[in-house]
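tool_call: predict_structure(chain=1)
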Amino acid sequence: MEVQEQTLNQEETRSKKEPEKKKKKTKGTKNEKFKWWQTLLILSLTLVISVGACYYVSQKYFWSKYDNDRLAEQLDSAKAVAEAKPNDPKSHVNLGYAYFLNGDNEEAVKQYKMALDLDKNYFDAYFNLGLVYNKEDRLNDSVKMAQKATEISPKDYKGFLLKGMSYRKLKMYKDAIEALNEANKLMPANTDIIYEVGRVAEDQGDKKNAEQIYKDALSYDPMYKPALEGLERVAKK
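tool_result:
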């Protein structure tokens, strides 16, 4: 798989509250309380899907660890492929990932943009670039990349997952839940999706529900590190 996690420079984003009487979409709603029924809507499907059917983004994209020797080898290999196939957007996405793993975020972004220059509708490039922006809090850009990814591939859950992650960090909790619900419809029982639902609850100060959701994620993967860390966080709050 060529889609991988990346990071970039930070950019502050603030959202504004809309008057309660208006029916427009609310942005930046710190006081908007997390609805347990919304969590149940997302988790209901996960209870009937076996763990063996899951595809974990986290294992391949978000939380992977590499030793230095492997990183150097991966970068050299990716460079060779990109040089041999300069017109292949996939080769540039893979090279961008290799640069990221080696700490060169600037070059990683350049490779993603090269991939997009070659193919304006290349899902992997938008998704990766969105992850860059999300990790470094360039959230408006992250949402844009996620939106483009979902338009290109509406059946790929990762675009909706990225959108949910970005909306959560923007404190647009209702939009985050809606996006995560769409992701769950496409990929039930995915621990990354369940974890992000827990993050919504946690960010809104709902420790009880956050704790339960993290435990639900661990019921599918007892070694899922983000959920383990989430339980530690809520226990300290």
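agent: Residues 18 and 146 are 24 Å apart (CA to CA). Proceeding to next step.
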